[in-house]
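Action item from last week, closing it out:
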Amino acid sequence: MADPTPHEVQSYIAQGLPCTELQVEGDGRHFFATIVSAEFEGLSRVRRHQRVYQALGDRMREQIHALSMKTLTPAEWAQQGTVLHHHS
């Protein structure tokens, strides 16, 4: 099975989780996703990640070997929206 592209991973997440902001970068094996969703309100970081894995379903186990995530609520995103762009 071919490795998924960042675009495919992004579409998988978007299908299973309503996001206000979603960015995925990667090389087919290692991915980094920034995911902003109102569904994360009140959830711990671990629960947020579980929610994303749930959205990805079986595809996660089969195809995506390493996914790093930054999971934020819209309010958290607004607070650090200016900060995130300094990583490049």
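Closing note: Strands lie at 21-26, 30-36, 66-72.
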